[in-house]
Design brief:
Blueprint (H helix, E strand, L loop, with lengths): L1 E5 L4 H12 L3 E6 L15 E5 L5 H9 L7 E4 L6 H4 L3 H21 L4 E7 L23 H20 L2 E7 L1 E3 L11 H10 L4 E4 L5 E2 L1 E3 H11 L8 E4 L5 E2 H12 L5 E4 L14 H7 L7 H15 L1
Parallel strand pairs: 1-2, 1-4, 2-3, 4-5, 5-6, 6-11, 7-10, 8-13
Antiparallel strand pairs: 9-12
């Protein structure tokens, strides 16, 4: 297939690009002109790199229709906000994510794109679910603008499928971690904690450390995206996670064990966007995608730590 990856130079995106290339597909990446392209260095001669804003419908049409004889598949990984920051400016979230995604879908229909794979959020669209593990049939009651916008984009994908026949698959993804995730950012507890351990800096935890999350290794996520890119059937929404939960305090203990380092830990007030416990039932993905996670948490954390020491 001819594939366009939005956000292909990022943590998840660059691994998806690698996976698509290994599978024999032709890959185009749309990135912001100021993006760091270091994650694509090893494959730069095999990727068509395009610069622009996915809110620019004219630029999108150019990217979707030229050079590679059009695009069959779009992998939509872009978000301009994080769950916590989204609540500080919901209008910005709406303008830059919901509006831009609808622009993208309109351009996809106009240019004959066959399918969109959308990275939604298993950690945010459900909110504080009373039933665990969370299935795709659980109520959706997001606690953040981020989750609301992700859920609304899901609805627009269904609408465009109904109106125009644009195929889609939605992956409600748990907390991904692994090589290439930014250790200096604020997103991703594994990367942030490993960065502080590497630099021997204090670690801050929101709340008392009892918040429990589902952590998914990047190689397993890429395998799910690749399977989602070729599936053709009535089931459109899949939870993608490890199927297990771990509280932050226990995650930190594992990271200390893997790294062999200790630092001071301080606790801050809990955030309103954080549900107490979140982990996903992924049995639907096993049945319809023939996908299940292969990497246990400790193996994934060890691989990530080795990368942090060597590269980050």
């Amino acid at each position: 297939m001819n594939c366009l990856v939005l956000g292909g130079a990022g943590f998840i995106g660059s691994h998806v690009v690698d996976g698509l290339l290994v599978a024999g597909h032709r890959v185009r990446v749309l990135e912001h002109p100021e993006s760091n392209l270091g994650n694509l260095t090893a494959v730069s001669d095999r990727v068509e790199l395009c610069f622009g804003d996915f809110a620019d419908s004219t630029r999108l049409s150019e990217v979707l229709s030229t050079a590679l004889d059009g695009v069959d598949l779009i992998v939509h990984l872009v978000s301009t906000v994080l769950p916590a920051s989204s609540n500080l400016n919901p209008l910005y979230d709406l303008e830059t994510n919901l509006k831009n995604s609808v622009v993208l879908l309109e351009a996809a229909v106009k240019n004959g794109v066959k399918k969109v794979v959308f990275a939604s959020s298993g950690g945010q669209v459900y909110g504080s679910s009373g039933v665990l593990p969370i299935t795709e049939l659980n109520p959706t009651d997001p606690l953040s603008s981020y989750g609301i916008i992700k859920l609304t984009i899901e609805k627009y994908l269904k609408l465009f499928h109904h109106l125009h026949g644009l195929d889609y698959t939605i992956l409600r993804i748990a907390n991904p971690y692994g090589e290439r995730q930014r250790i200096g950012g604020t997103q991703g507890a594994v990367a942030v904690f490993l960065g502080h351990l590497k630099n021997r800096e204090p670690i801050e935890i929101w709340g008392d450390g009892s918040v429990a999350r589902d952590y998914l290794y990047i190689a397993d996520l890429v395998a799910a995206i690749l399977k989602a890119s070729t599936i053709d059937g009535p089931v459109k929404i899949f939870n993608i996670g490890s199927g297990h939960s771990l509280i932050l305090n226990d995650l930190l203990a594992l990271l200390i064990e893997v790294s062999g380092r200790r630092v001071k830990v301080t606790y801050k007030d809990a955030r309103p966007c954080d549900s107490p416990v979140n982990f996903l039932d992924c049995s639907r993905a096993l049945v319809h995608l023939n996908w299940e996670p292969r990497f246990d948490l400790k193996t994934g954390l060890k691989r990530t730590w080795d990368w942090v020491l060597a590269n980050a």
